[in-house]
Fold Fasciclin-like arabinogalactan protein 1.
Amino acid sequence: MQLSPLSFFLFLLFSATTLTSTNGHNITHILAGHPDFSTFNHYLTLTHLAAEINSRTTITVCAVDNAAMNTLLSKHPSIATVKNVLSLHVLLDYFGAKKLHQIRDGSALAATMFQATGSAPGSSGFVNITDVKGGKVAFGPQDNDGTLDVYFVKPLQELPYNLSVIQISKVLPSEVAAAPTPEPSAMNITDIMSAHGCKVFADTLLANPEASKTYQENIEGGLTVFCPLDDPFKTFLPKFKNLTAAGKVSFLEFFGVPIYQSLSMLKSNNGVMNTLATDGANKFDFEVQNDGEEVTLKTRSVTAKITGTLIDEQPVAIYTLDKVLLPKELFKAAPRPAPAPAPAPEVAADAPKPGKHSKKQPVADAPSDSPADAPADDGVVADQTDDDNAGVRMGCGKLVAAGLSLCLGLLLL
Ligand SMILES: *[C@@H]1O[C@H](CO)[C@@H](O)[C@H](O)[C@H]1NC(C)=O
Ligand SMILES: *[C@@H]1O[C@H](CO)[C@@H](O)[C@H](O)[C@H]1NC(C)=O
Ligand SMILES: *[C@@H]1O[C@H](CO)[C@@H](O)[C@H](O)[C@H]1NC(C)=O
Ligand SMILES: *[C@@H]1O[C@H](CO)[C@@H](O)[C@H](O)[C@H]1NC(C)=O
Ligand SMILES: *[C@@H]1O[C@H](CO)[C@@H](O)[C@H](O)[C@H]1NC(C)=O
């Protein structure tokens, strides 16, 4: 059989899409084969738990059917609440049908993704699984007064020992997980930063009404903040004070991204990311680069590492950085060493559009009025990829608008 170029291209597209799931499983795809679970499946995607599930192994997803999901949704929970409830349905251990019916001593306690996110106080992130009379298997959240009234119904898919997908009779009743989360607009992001090691950055942001307003305006539609920890930011303050007024605003806005990004999304996307400061020719972007469990953000002169999560409540996520990231528009890099071989082109992260906010006048084209020659805090300067790959990445970035898989397919070609 002869493959036409088009079908060959489509084949590449298809392989590229399936390749992106690192452990070979795709929960969205698995549940798509079970129409009774379409609501559960839809919300796994909306809450970004699907990506989290695909990035892990040795887990069990306790799915509920559309009727059970409707009971949960009839209370009109926020998306952050739905995320908490559903993350309680992802057990961090493998329970196939066989194992469920042969639990040692008839009872086990399973940690869940809810517990792993840190939003679950005490034992509320654990699920009790007990073999009860008549060969039934009962489930209950540990914080539910010992009531076990949710039952195993049937296995949906088993990929031993990576992923087991089972049906349980209804949504696990947890008051803690189902508690309303604050409206995003009521969230005070500077308070959250101040309380968790980013007080200097938060105070600097509060002292700058224009940048503060930009952050505030983007909360509702999705906002990810990367705040430098106090020690590095304190050291950096003299250089900040040297920036022009417009430079200060852009610099502060550079640490926010106008879309929600969970840590698993950051881990599965390498590429250029626009920021709240991105405005036409003033790119103010940085590159996300993953190395195993580590996520780093890079500009020409600095590579900063994400060291912690202060909050991850869709649509807002705030992470801490171990260094102050320096935008190349404001800080000139030291002379570059001899070019190293360019690394393989990376797939661009879904590059967000510039934040919607009233724009100040453009910042002067790099550095005459800025502390340009200040070396990066860590003295590290070599960043080949920034320029060497720019062509490829930009080309890809444009294509992202047309479809990420198209771009993937082209890269494979
Ligand atoms: C998972 O499967 C769904 C539906 O089949 C597909 O749309 C999606 O792109 C897949 N995701 C990954 C990461 O392969
Ligand atoms: C699970 O709950 C049952 C009933 O409340 C209880 O008897 C059992 O000890 C619990 N199992 C574990 C492992 O905590
Ligand atoms: C389980 O995951 C590993 C990678 O972590 C993969 O090599 C293996 O094929 C997966 N097994 C199944 C049954 O999906
Ligand atoms: C957040 O709290 C600080 C004081 O802790 C206050 O100055 C600031 O105005 C608050 N921000 C919002 C948006 O309410
Ligand atoms: C601030 O700018 C002045 C004048 O350009 C310069 O002498 C000084 O070294 C700069 N300070 C820092 C901390 O960059």
Q: What stands out?
A: Residues 1-21, 344-351, 353-413 have pLDDT under 50 and may be disordered. The longest helix spans residues 5-19. Residues 107-109, 128, 130, 146, 148 surround 2-acetamido-2-deoxy-beta-D-glucopyranose (ligand 2) (CB under 6 Å).
